[in-house]
Write a structure and sequence with these properties.
Distance between the termini: 39 Å
Helix content: over 70%
Number of helices: 16
Radius of gyration: 21 Å
Number of strands: 0
Order of helices and strands: HHHHHHHHHHHHHHHH
């Protein structure tokens, strides 16, 4: 059966549906990040407690996507993605009506669980249905939906909160997600090349253990943990910093700070290409050093210099993430899916743990405390980047694959 060709009506339907799917999922995942100060005020909670609204969603997403992939291998790609999007839209609207912080936090946790159905499945759907000659372009549009969703969700939430409060911010993203889900359900073509596989928990566990057994892969998982943890820590508390004196920015203006993500759109491709030329380990170290430099510059008092520092920090983070995640895929000769799942699990776990822990430093030491916490993470990540260079030379992936097979 012929696969979908670029330029066809089906190709446009697939790419638009998955673009909107990614947009809605990542807009929903980080919807509370620009409005954390408003949650603190509305519920009378500390910044660290408010940050749990981001952390519980990312940690449940991390846990869920390890399990959803095998489930989609058995039940089918479109049914799993459709359920994920519809459920996420409904839960997003319900979260806006939560009477107190406890129920709101529970709904955010469930939100992350159901949202995992799309990121854990979308790339497999594209690989099965799109002609290999056009897969790169289709995958690029899907990844663009990820970044546009994360960016637009934060901006829309910030602007809605400025006019109508935090409930309107969360509810507006929920309604947008529900609209995207309905379009997705009607538009995405059913799988034609999917072949169901029986659920085999034992095989999944063995794949995860093999993917954890490589010391270089473990190092890259930890780099993802530390880089993402520092990234979310900065963006969680920059809204508190900029909405307080002497800056006194409104939630809408703070939401526009997330336009700095566009620096990452450029750096992920640019530094990724440089890593092909100069080596992954050196460029990973350089990216992390750029991230650390940006965090340091953000300590400056003038607002424009501070924003420049955040832009530099963002540029470095997306470069590091691009290099580390690509290296995981290249290194994992066997069990690529399991290795990618473990990388994303530790990546989002770092987001959850560091995003909340940094709140304790904010409460005690304010912005310098947050930057100091981030600096500790990034110095550790730089050490791991140096270690990765030695591990790459001492344990080639071909030898690792053989040794695992012989065990």
């Amino acid at each position: 059966m012929t696969r979908i060709q670029q330029g066809s009506r089906e190709y446009r339907r697939v790419t638009l549906a998955l673009f909107l799917g990614a947009l809605s999922v990542y807009a929903s995942l980080y919807v509370t990040q620009p409005i954390l100060p408003l949650l603190s005020e509305a519920f009378g909670i500390t910044p660290a407690h408010a940050s749990l609204s981001v952390s519980v969603a990312t940690v449940s997403l991390a846990l869920s996507q390890v399990l959803v992939g095998p489930l989609a291998d058995s039940l089918g790609r479109k049914p799993v993605m459709t359920f994920a999007m519809l459920a996420a839209g409904v839960i997003g609207v319900a979260a806006a009506l939560a009477p107190s912080f406890g129920p709101f936090l529970f709904l955010r946790f469930v939100h992350g669980l159901v949202m995992a159905g799309l990121p854990a499945t979308a790339m497999a759907y594209l690989a099965e249905e799109i002609d290999a000659r056009h897969l790169g372009a289709a995958m690029g549009l899907y990844i663009a939906g990820n970044s546009v969703g994360g960016l637009s969700g934060r901006i829309i939430a910030g602007m809605a909160a400025d006019f109508w409060g935090w409930r309107a911010a969360v509810g507006s993203i929920g309604v947008m997600s529900l609209a995207c889900a309905l379009w997705f359900t009607r538009t995405l073509p059913p799988s034609r090349h999917f072949r169901p596989q029986p659920l085999q928990p034992k095989r999944l566990v063995l794949s995860l253990l093999r993917a954890w057994g490589d010391p270089l892969l473990r190092t890259l998982y930890m780099v993802g943990f530390l880089a993402m943890g520092s990234f979310v820590a900065l963006y969680n508390y920059v809204s508190y910093h900029l909405m307080a004196a002497p800056y006194n920015l409104s939630p809408a203006l703070v939401g526009w700070i997330f336009l700095l993500y566009l620096a990452g759109t450029f750096s992920s491709a640019f530094l990724g290409r440089l890593s092909d030329r100069y080596g992954r380990a050196p460029m990973l170290g350089l990216s992390l050093a750029i991230q650390l430099t940006g965090a340091t510059v953000s300590l400056a008092g003038p607002l424009l210099v501070k924003i420049l520092g955040i832009a530099i920090f963002t540029f470095g983070f997306f470069g590091a993430h691009s290099i580390a995640s690509g290296w995981v895929g290249q290194r994992a000769v066997r069990d690529k899916g399991a290795a990618s799942a473990l990388y994303l699990f530790t990546y989002y776990l770092g987001s959850s743990l560091a995003g909340t822990t940094a709140g304790l430093f904010w409460m005690r030491f304010h912005w310098p405390g947050v930057v100091g916490f981030i600096a500790c993470f990034l110095v550790a990540a730089l050490g791991l980047a140096a270690l990765s260079r030695r591990l790459e030379a001492s344990t080639p992936p071909q030898q690792h694959a053989v040794s695992q097979t012989q065990r």
